[in-house]
């Protein structure tokens, strides 16, 4: 199966490849690895690349995309690239400069999708996670509808083809959808989603509004101190997933990815390991029968790896 042709139509008429390559890595991983892994992902067939200003690797990811265009592997229009507006840039006047900064780092003329990374506004400035002397996050107060209007202007200016959100709950989505004078609906809501947190209610809500759910941490999560609850069980070690994987002669990771695709969810697969990057493309080579889907549904325990705990207490904290 050719992964390049596996796409879903967004509500603005553009198309998003259903399998994306996630580029986030913990701080201690050298940025050069993002360059090599992204180049390899494009070589083996990934066409949807997901990054963010927060990841601090857009320079390398952009370099990888440009080098694969330069050597004739792909054209720019073959690549679907997502960037994200970080929480320190949610004030309307900071939105376009933030996107322009990402474009400058990437050395690309436009991104395919620009999304609000997290609905909790942080104090603007150079620091990604501004804190006071006690280590508490410094919040900002921003009307997300005004932020959204600034994203609409970025789309009109051609800096991004599509606009969406991430980590929004259904009330926050409704706030945007019911905004007077709404010009463009969010095309997607990118959320943590995996068999331990299957998000079925939020997914149904998104689909009812023609908003595509995009799953991050679809393989559980990297154990990143400070961002992830390290006491949670490791999803890919789940015996039920193992048994289904064995039955289909696949890895547990591929089963977790396939599960999302069959639910109509766009799924991001994050790995810097060449063998696993290639393995994840196996997701198009088989189908899970309804009984396996039902079994995986049964693993749900509303377990969230990425709870953005620094933001608890802010009125826009989504969970």
From TrEMBL:
Residues 19-300 form the NADP-dependent oxidoreductase domain. GO terms for molecular function: aldose reductase (NADPH) activity; androsterone dehydrogenase [NAD(P)+] activity; bile acid binding; ketosteroid monooxygenase activity. The record marks 84 as: Lowers pKa of active site Tyr. The keyword NADP applies. Pfam families: Aldo_ket_red. The active site is at residue 55. Substrate binds at residue 117. SUPFAM superfamilies: NAD(P)-linked oxidoreductase. One of its GO terms (biological process) is prostaglandin metabolic process. InterPro entries: AKR (IPR020471), AKR1C (IPR044482), Aldo/ket_reductase_CS (IPR018170), NAD(P)_OxRdtase_dom_sf (IPR036812), NADP_OxRdtase_dom (IPR023210). Transmembrane segments: none annotated. Keywords: NADP, Oxidoreductase. It comes from the Eukaryota. GO terms for cellular component: cytosol. PANTHER family: ALDO/KETO REDUCTASE. Belongs to the aldo/keto reductase family. This is Aldo-keto reductase family 1 member C1.
């Amino acid at each position: 199966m050719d992964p390049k042709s596996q796409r879903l139509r967004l509500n603005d008429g553009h198309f998003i490849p259903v399998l994306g390559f996630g580029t986030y890595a913990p701080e201690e991983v050298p940025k050069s690895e993002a360059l090599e892994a992204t180049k390899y992902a494009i070589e083996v067939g990934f066409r949807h690349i997901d990054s963010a200003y927060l990841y601090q690797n857009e320079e390398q990811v952009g370099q990888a995309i440009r080098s694969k265009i330069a050597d004739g592997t792909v054209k720019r229009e073959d690549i679907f690239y997502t960037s994200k507006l970080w929480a320190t840039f949610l004030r309307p006047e900071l939105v376009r400069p933030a996107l322009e900064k990402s474009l400058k780092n990437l050395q690309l003329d436009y991104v395919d999708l620009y999304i609000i990374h997290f609905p909790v506004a942080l104090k603007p400035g150079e620091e990604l996670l501004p804190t006071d002397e006690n280590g508490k996050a410094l919040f900002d107060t921003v009307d997300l509808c005004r932020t959204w209007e600034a994203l609409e202007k970025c789309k009109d200016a051609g800096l991004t083809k599509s606009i969406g959100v991430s980590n929004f709950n259904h009330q926050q989505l409704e706030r945007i959808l019911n905004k007077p004078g709404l010009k463009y609906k969010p095309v997607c809501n990118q959320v943590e989603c995996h068999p331990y947190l299957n998000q079925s209610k939020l997914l149904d809500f998104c689909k009812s509004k023609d908003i595509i759910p995009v799953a991050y941490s679809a393989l559980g999560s990297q154990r990143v101190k400070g961002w992830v609850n390290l006491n949670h069980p490791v999803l890919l070690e789940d015996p039920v997933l193992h048994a289904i994987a064995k039955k289909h002669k696949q890895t547990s990771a591929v089963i977790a990815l396939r599960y999302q695709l069959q639910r109509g969810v766009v799924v991001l697969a994050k790995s810097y390991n060449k063998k696993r990057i290639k393995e994840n493309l196996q997701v198009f080579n088989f189908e899970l029968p309804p009984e396996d889907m039902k079994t995986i549904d049964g693993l749900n325990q509303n377990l969230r790896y990425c709870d953005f705990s620094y933001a608890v207490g802010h009125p826009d904290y989504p969970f």
